[in-house]
Design a protein that fits this description.
It contains 2 helices and no strands. The protein is mainly alpha-helical and about 90 residues long. The longest helix is centred in the middle third of the chain and has 43 residues, at about 35-80. About 0% of the residues are buried. It has one domain (about 10-80).
């Protein structure tokens, strides 16, 4: 049991350290070969994409909450569990 913990810890440490090393290597290459204006544009695009995904997730969660509330209200009113399926 103790051997397993050691090997899990060693694997975790190796994975973590190699991830940081690869990130450092990639960042150095980007700094060397990519012009600053391109890096800025890519950064802006990544932030915009993140914002778009975040907005979509919030809208999806709001729609799920609304559907859940409607479903619960229908069950309370009718006492049945025959709910409409989206897309039918």
């Amino acid at each position: 049991m103790f051997k397993r913990a050691i090997w899990i810890g060693a694997g975790f440490g190796a994975g973590l350290s190699s991830s940081f090393w690869i990130k450092r290597v990639v960042n150095r290459r980007v700094d060397r070969y990519v012009p600053p204006d391109v890096r800025t544009a890519v950064g802006r695009g990544a932030r915009k994409a993140t914002s778009t995904v975040r907005t979509a997730v919030h809208e999806g969660r709001a729609a799920m909450r609304q559907f859940q509330a409607e479903a619960e209200a229908e069950v309370e009113l009718t006492g049945s569990t025959s709910l409409r399926v989206v897309g039918d």
